[in-house]
Amino acid sequence: MRIIPLKLGIILLFLSSINSLCANEKEDFNIGYYDLEKDIRYDEWGVHPVDIRSKTNQLYKRPLAGAKLGLKDIKPFQRMAKVKFKLMDMRIKNIDTAADEILNHIHKNNIKIVLLDFPASELINIVSKISDLNIAVINISSKNNELRSFNCNKNLFHTIPSERMLTDSLAQYLSDKKWRKVLILTGPLEIDKSKSVSFIESAKQFGLKIVDNRSFLLGNDPRARDQNDLDFLTGSAKYDAVYISDTHGEFSYKVPFATHIPSTVLGSSGLTPRAWHWSYLRHGAPQVHGRFERMNKRRMTEEDWAAWVGMRAIAEALVRFKNNENFSFQDAFVSEEFKLDGSKGPVLNFRKWNRQLRQPIMLSTDNWVTSIAPLESFVHRVNNLDTIGIDSKTSKCGK
Amino acid sequence: MQIKKLKFNFFVIFSSLLILLISLNAKADRAVISNEGSDNITIIDLNTYEILNTIESGDRPRDMHYIPATNHLLVAASEDDTINVIDMKTLKMIGNLETGDDPEIFDISPDGKVAVVSNEDDNEATVIDIQTGKIIRVIEDVGIEPEGVNFTPDGKLVFITSEGTNTIIIIDPWIGEIIEEVLVGNRPRRGAFAKNGEEYWVTNELGGTVSVIDTNTFSIKHTINFERKGIRSSEITPVDFAMSNDGNLAYITLGRSKHVAVVNTNNYEVIDYILAGSRVWGAAITKDDKILIVTNGQSDDISIIDTDKRASIKSIAVGITPHTVRIIE
Hints:
The structure holds 2 protein chains of 2 kinds. By secondary structure, chain A is α/β, with parallel strands linked by helices. In chain A, about 35% of the residues lie in helices and about 15% in strands. Chain A folds into 2 domains: about 220 residues, Rossmann fold, CATH 3.40.50.2300; about 110 residues, Rossmann fold (3-Layer(aba) Sandwich). In chain A, the strands form 3 sheets. Chain A has a 5-stranded parallel sheet with strand order 2-1-3-4-5, sandwiched between helices. Chain A is globular. Chain B starts with a helix and ends with a strand. The mean pLDDT of chain B is about 90. At the A-B interface, helix 12 and helix 13 of A face loops of B.
């Protein structure tokens, strides 16, 4: 008789302890990360021939490493966000089925938000296919201007700066230095041509004069000397600076110190505009870079930073806005109260019209950040960070 | 003869007394400034505002605390992973405390026996026995890039600001446990207790605000905003505090805006803004609340501020990137 209540008591105690355990358990918050197996951007293009053979060089440059540091860095936010962050990555083999594969992966794993590392054309295709899910997507690597000027999507956010932000930064620097006459050297790829177009637009906005726009070719063919010999390419013109667009970087690294007349080289080599550079010493950047380097044994690239800051944006939005009615990342990211710390100085947030992350740009050489854009002498009526990039007036997005 | 002798003795005694007085006076009021870019410490006479000495420290000296009982100055040498102990009488380095990696900011328990330091790179806080110089315990997972460290006035708890997680983490250093975590603004840098420990004030560098935490309920009781014509909100980057000893005013350095805000601690109103140098950050105030000294990280100087006039009366060039200032009275 006395045994039964005791047993009941034990069972009750057992049940209640399970209950309290469950209450402490944080709900999983799954973040999807997708990239492409055959992505030309991660080939050995632009890597110095010695580095390709070098045992000391790390050729693995995929920004998944940045997302992984991001995951590590946002884990302390779990206490406040009351969730458990998980990063679920998948590498797509076949580009034709990419959107469907991603869609399946999202459903199967209850993915709440997505980071994408794809070139622009594939990116927009995937985003439009998963648009019905109403899930926020963060682009961490495509700088394509069209994605910010007319080919937008209400769910698509960009943490990597646009090409226009980069070329505007260079134009501000040249204007500030009064090096106003610029010779453009354009590479053979479509993406090279679009970079040069972006620079021409920036030059117009900041009052620079384009002396000439010449195409270069890789090779030693004596019949194409005007396109592959630097003395010919940079001769018979007067300029203060040479802008070079060479996405794969195999030609551009030969240009600094080799122009026909003394001049500054910028763009794909010389002074390069980047979202992030390992040599930056202020605003907590060395701490972020140190954590990355200890984890991955290589320098942190701008794509790594864009993936890392994308992860931070997710945590920041959850911690501050999760308890709001009808919470969505899409609303939280463009809220006035959204403030993101990217370890680059000012507080960062997304532009409402094209969902591009506002941010300073580092004008860097191989081992030093020479200047930060926006430069002090350029002011905007609302936010100085909007002196670089596609402004609300010119963007057709959000209208 | 006797009278002459007496006169002579009197003269000797008088003059030696005078010399003693002068030397006492000269030793009494000094300001020490750590220069993190030039690895040295500048010592300034607060009567004449002359530089008395520049002494070498470990690499990248940052936070400092003075212990009156032993006349020792403790200096966090971040790149040497240690805290230097400097004898302020001989101005010689007499020892080091174990700290773990990259110590930046630390605080000393009210009884002067224990130091707690934040290790920015390891997301840790380290508790150190000052007398033996040995680590007592390490508290892990105190948020990303922990910075500000403050003992509660009763010495029971330690409040740590976590720059990367935007929170204040409250720890019990005596048992090594995290007690509570409070969400504040973006990039919390430093903290200070007000009203005998009833409130903990925190500067949010990127948020541009100061959060006031009720230390009984661990909740945010008030947020102070700064606005001044001619200064963009993005330039308002609060870093450090100097709390007046009468408890009525808080002086808050506003970084890039080159100003120091004067706040009434009773009603949280911003009374005034004082112009200082480029990237003003470290701050300290004299016991009589008359003189405020701030370090200007980007112009390599300090500003001496008269708190009655609420104006800078002198700027003194020191070492490269002056970080912390302390006043020894």
